[in-house]
Amino acid sequence: MASQRPRLTEVRFTVTDQSGFVKEPRLKGSFTNWDQVPMSEIGDGLWEHVQMVAPGTYEWGAVEPDGTEWGVWLPELAGNRVNLVVTVTMSLLVEGVTSIFIGDGHVPRPTSRSFLEGLSPKDRAGLDEILRLLSRASMMNVLQVIISARAPLRFSRIQDLCAISATSLSRRLKELEKAGLVRRYSHNTIPLTVEYQATQVAFELEPTLRELYSWAIDNRESLRGP
After folding, report:
1. Sign of the CA dihedral 158, 164, 165, 171?
2. Where in the chain is the domain with CATH 1.10.10.10?
3. How far apart are CA 86 and CA 95, in angstroms?
4. CATH 2.60.40.10 domain position(s) in the chain
5. How many CB atoms lie within 10 A of CB 22?
6. What is the CATH architecture of 121-218?
7. Which of these, 12, 38, 187, 205, is most buried using a 10 Å CB contact count?
8. In this structure, what DSSP letter does residue 70 have?
9. Average pLDDT, 10 consecutive residues per value, the chain (226 residues)
10. Is this model's pTM higher than 0.90 or not?
11. What CATH number is given for 9-102 in this structure?
């Protein structure tokens, strides 16, 4: 008996930009295997792409090429701290987020306060544990590479980008997976293919990591050790 063709439905993804920054956005998501797909300009500051999608839940976003490997992640410019999520139900209804809107102003930041204020001894101990995890050798570099990709990466690719030994990387990846910051995917191929991808809670860390790296770069001369 012939196999049944997968049921697909059209999902219309849009990017609206009032800032003038976006010129040629490219859609990417788990439904494209994280490959970039050009979007069509349909108006002043408005782009769209119609994708045929099977039932399921998918993470997605769009990038603006800037000469780097992964480009500028547009959901972040729109104020989103995690990947966008869209669902196609079994009845082919589209639910979730299918659009990105970038305004002409800056996303407001919350007012600062003492982030230790009101923490119980138990919560402070948990915070210390998280900070110790992130402060381990090469940990933040590994995490930043995986987050920035916004797509599954193989072990060898992460090692190339982080320039660390295979033993150290294996240890860091196991620790990140145990902490819930990274997912490990195994594909039934010969030889076995293993990939790693950031979780949503890891994506929430990216703006902080970006600011920390920027601060370190700007102050590297005055922070040099003896």
Report:
1. negative
2. 121-218
3. 6
4. 9-102
5. 23
6. Orthogonal Bundle (1.10)
7. 205
8. S
9. 73 95 95 95 96 93 90 89 88 94 64 59 85 92 91 93 95 95 88 88 86 85 68
10. no
11. 2.60.40.10
